[in-house]
């Protein structure tokens, strides 16, 4: 697998557009825990970017393998490219793009009560 080393690559533009929320149907997920939680919640992951070191990390490899089996496209990127992809100051080793789940209004209120915390523009 080739490593993406150019910040001008179309993949970088796609992640940056997601960070700007140009497409409200796309979620930008940054970090192992956020990607893993999204997968556990059933979010459809379309694209994954990770550093070469992350691919070999025993804590990340099972997640990467699961994402690839589920049909997500995997790109290995250099650290500078990951810095460009990630909207946070200290980029993580993995980021992903997923489809925002569509939930009918009444479905939000069905089921047992759950605590929900939302952070916006943090």
- What can be said about the biggest beta sheet? 5 strands, mixed
Q: Per CATH, which architecture? A: 2-Layer Sandwich
* Assembly state of the chains shown: single chain
Q: Class by helix and strand content? A: alpha/beta
User: What would you give as the CATH superfamily?
Assistant: Ribosomal protein L30/S12
What CATH calls the topology is: 60s Ribosomal Protein L30, Chain: A
SSE arrangement:
Layout: E1 3-4, H1 10-19, E2 26-30, H2 32-40, E3 45-51, H3 52-55, H4 61-69, E4 73-77, H5 79-85, E5 94-99, H6 105-108
Parallel strand pairs: 1-4, 3-4
Antiparallel strand pairs: 2-5, 3-5
Helix pairs in contact: 1-5
Describe the structure.
- This protein has helices at residues 10-19, 32-40, 52-55, 61-69, 79-85, 105-108; strands at 3-4, 26-30, 45-51, 73-77, 94-99.
- With 122 residues, the protein is of the alpha/beta class.
- It has a single domain (3-102), classed as 2-Layer Sandwich (60s Ribosomal Protein L30, Chain: A), CATH 3.30.1330.30.
- The chain has a 5-stranded mixed beta sheet, sandwiched between helices.
- Helix 1 (10-19) runs parallel beside helix 5.
- The chain is globular, with a radius of gyration of 15 Å.
- The termini are far apart.
